[in-house]
């Protein structure tokens, strides 16, 4: 399977590798990867706070629409084309719905029921489910290591469901189901891109996937959630801008630039920084609990993803 498993998009690798010297190029790649993953981790508590200002679907997808427009400007500024080759539209729309639309919407709903730290941990199980789906779809052998990775991810989910009491457990179920479904659908899209990749440069593909995935959900949110933009605080608008500029545009620009310089397996393992940053940032910024269930689930998930990426 394709081991490039970030928290959002997976498209084909760039056919134009970096022209920098190998050692310098890899060092730059590590730096870009670190920037992207830290930004994505911090965005979890940012998104949780924004729920006080905007309803979940609007909050998650409207910044992505602006991110897509900013990335489109970057692509054009680099002299690249945004043209979609004939015959690629069907795949592009399907992957956008699975890896962006469903992911953004379901994770937004998950944040309504779960702390940002726990949502980040559940989202990080994505590479594990992709490892499992590669068996029936791509015919890749389900090795012992992959079975162990899946078991560890499930163990992390069980720890998060335990919480502090049975009552808390049942309150978490809708959020856990939304997060797991989001991760499964994203993983399905990731595996399908390996089966039938999109014949586009990565950054241009990211523009279309962000736009096609976020715009319909954002439109639905505006029409049916009735967000009150006039009632947003200055701080709310600041966080909205962070999601659009940093989490979306800068995060994805750094991610795809890193992919051009690093092996995919290293980039995949590097994304383990995301849930760690998300959990720590949520504890610091939101005062969310950081007890045995959260730490245990984080350790199980990080270890499971590392095993899945190397299996």
UniProtKB/TrEMBL annotation:
Membrane topology per record:
Multi-pass membrane protein
The reply on keyword Transmembrane is yes
Q: Where is the EamA domain?
A: 29-161, 174-308
> Mainly resides where?
membrane
Asked if Nucleotide-binding is a keyword of the record, the answer is no
* Top-level taxon: Bacteria
| Coiled coil (UniProt feature) | none
State the compartments where it is located. Cell membrane
Which Pfam families would you find in this protein's record? EamA
- Region of interest (Disordered), ranges: 1-23
This protein's UniProt keywords: Cell membrane, Membrane, Transmembrane, Transmembrane helix
Transmembrane region(s): 27-47, 59-77, 89-114, 120-138, 143-161, 173-193, 205-224, 236-259, 266-286, 292-309
Can you name this protein?
EamA domain-containing protein
* Organism (species): Afipia felis ATCC 53690
